Amino acid sequence: MIKTLGCAILMALGMSLMAAEPAARIDIDGKDAGITLTLGDKPAGGNVVMLEDNALLCAESAPLATTDWQTFSFSFTPSKDGIVALVLEGGRTLGDNNSFWICFDHVEATGAAIVDGGFETRDVTGRPVGWSIPDLYQYISFKGDFCVRVRYDKPIQQKITVKAGQTVTIKAKIRKIKA
Ligand SMILES: [Ca+2]
């Protein structure tokens, strides 16, 4: 995935006004399919930046002050049928916390299908299904045996199929690893 410098800068500016706590981030990327996105509900306490002529939605959670699992949710509506990338990563803040691990689990959607949003299913080779190169993390999963661990510079993604005018709501459980 190609990082968009503008996105990073805008996120950094947005988050600089808030506490320097880790945050989770989800991007919805419709650039390859020429799908533009209309933002619906914003993540509570978080921040959303629209880029690439509205083909790239960058949603950042509220800063994670504790290690409790939190719900991260937002919605969008695509302009046409096709495939977008759902990218899970860490948010970006200024200062020393620029690179921190965030765990995701129980990623679900209405209005689109997500494969193995709980990171529990393996193929015959033992590799988790659905996601690009997931870094599985044990012991603290929200549900089941595993969650996934991501960072700003170590995202994972899944391609999801969307329909024109069909609003998609993404909901995920997120937490930071260290207090
Ligand atoms: Ca799980």
Description:
This protein is mainly beta. The protein has one domain (5-176). The protein is 7% helix and 39% strand. The chain contains 1 helix and 11 strands. The chain has one helix at residues 5-16; strands spanning 24-29, 37-39, 47-51, 56-60, 70-78, 82-90, 102-110, 136-138, 146-150, 156-162, 168-176. A hairpin with a 7-residue loop joins strand 8 and strand 9. The longest helix is centred in the N-terminal third of the chain and has 12 residues, at 5-16. It is globular and about 40 Å long. The protein starts with a helix and ends with a strand. The structure holds calcium ion. Residues 105, 118-120, 141, 143-144, 146-147 line the site of calcium ion. Calcium ion is lined by residues 105, 118-120, 141, 143-144, 146-147.
Strand order of the largest sheet: 2-5-11-7-9-8
Total strand count, please? 11
Strand content: 35-45%
Helix content: under 10%
Low-confidence stretches: none
Radius of gyration: 15 Å
Q: What is the end-to-end distance?
A: 29 Å
Please, how many helices? 1
Q: What is the H/E string?
A: HEEEEEEEEEEE
